[in-house]
Amino acid sequence: MDIDKEKIKKRFSEINKALKEINNISALPDKDFWAEKKNIAALKYYLLQAIEAVGNISAHIVAKVYNLGISSFGECFDVLEKEGILNDVFILKLRQMVKFRNRLVHEYWDIDDKKVLDFARKDIGDFKDFIKLIDEQFLKQI
What we know:
Blueprint: H1 5-26, H2 30-35, H3 37-65, H4 73-82, H5 88-106, H6 113-122, H7 125-139
Helix pairs in contact: 1-3, 1-7, 3-4, 3-5, 3-6, 3-7, 4-5
């Protein structure tokens, strides 16, 4: 089966739009950021959106390239690691994203909002790295 390049590009676009909003919100000075509750809620939403897109891209690739059905994003990452697409360092980052996603979805009351803001300010480059990796490995080759 062939990868649906347009589907992946659409997810890339979703990630990039979310990252733009994350950058805008997280760039606020602390005093302004914490003055509005909606800022942390929006930040969590956009992070969730970006993580979901990463997982959906991974699931699509695993299904189309490796002809495997999976039941979780973690399984997708296992396949991509086994196939040599993801290295040990990057797979750890993706697993952390999924854990964060699960906490946002299932245990949102147990999340340290300051850590969310810190992640948004320091670690969202992982999303761009993922896009670059997938583009180089799957889209440009087709």
